[in-house]
Design a protein that fits this description.
Layout (H helix, E strand, L loop, with lengths): L1 E2 L2 E2 H21 L3 H13 L1 H24 L4 H24 L2 H20 L10 H18 L3 H10 L4 H25 L5 H24 L5 H21 L1
Antiparallel strand pairs: 1-2
Length: 245
């Protein structure tokens, strides 16, 4: 028996990943793609998995926008978001033309290395400049379009600074919203949004939304230290696991 091109066992694993990824995303503002992408890419290939994941993330983002709005630093979000939107088309062409295995392993190494440095106690001591924010946002946009994992550079940039957990979470949520609009438009223009992509998104969306709701309920119960530890722990774990798969 197959579901949207997946075996029954693969469909169950993907649904569980979407649920777990949603819960992590509801709590931290990110993490779904990092959980789902390695699993779904193995099952259907990255050129189907990546656009399906971005589509799911886009629609589930609407759950998070209202609650995050009160904590947004709009200046920082616009710097990151506009740069991410500009970088996204480059990443879309990367998805089509660059070897995905090479890119996946490169991203895994970068994520794991930065996460280890920050778990060890490193933090950026000065206020991040607008140019730094724009550069990081652009890199994140490229990675979003190419592999659906544009979060790590932006997340590490925010966590390395002095911002509060709520403000960092809000910035991550709104950053993704801006970049996802451009990425989805480019996918459609380039003919990447095939029927199989749409059906896979339909399969994952309910589980993702349930997970997001759970994580959102848990976030207010966390303090700054717990938020930071969970966020870095997710990055480190996914980076290492993705590297060895």
């Amino acid at each position: 028996m197959e579901f949207f091109g997946l075996t029954a066992a693969e469909a169950i694993v993907v649904l569980l990943a979407a649920l777990a990824g949603g819960a992590i995303r509801g709590f931290t503002g990110f993490g779904s793609a990092l959980v789902i992408a390695p699993i779904l890419s193995i099952a259907v290939g990255s050129r189907i998995a990546v656009p399906a994941i971005i589509l799911v993330l886009f629609f589930s983002t609407f759950q998070l926008l209202p609650g995050a709005a009160r904590d947004v630093n709009w200046r920082r979000v616009l710097q990151l978001g506009l740069a991410g939107a500009a970088g996204a088309p480059i990443g879309v062409y990367g998805l089509i033309y660059i070897d995905q295995e090479l890119m996946r392993r490169f991203i895994a190494v970068v994520v794991a290395a930065f996460a280890i440095a920050m778990v060890a106690g490193w933090r950026y001591q000065r206020a991040p400049s607008p140019f730094m924010a724009i550069g990081v946002g652009g890199v994140g946009g490229v990675l979003s379009g190419a592999a659906s994992v544009g979060g790590p550079p932006v997340i590490l940039f925010l966590l390395a600074g002095p911002g509060a957990a709520a403000a960092n979470r809000a910035a991550i949520i709104y950053y993704f919203f801006f970049s996802q609009i451009v990425v989805l438009g480019m996918y459609w223009f380039e003919g990447v949004m095939v029927v199989k992509v749409l059906w896979l998104a339909v399969l994952m969306l309910p589980a993702q939304m349930i997970g997001v709701a759970i994580g959102t309920k848990l976030f207010p119960k966390a303090n700054e230290t717990l938020y930071r530890r969970v966020a870095l722990g997710v990055l480190l774990t996914i980076g290492l696991v993705t590297l060895v798969i």
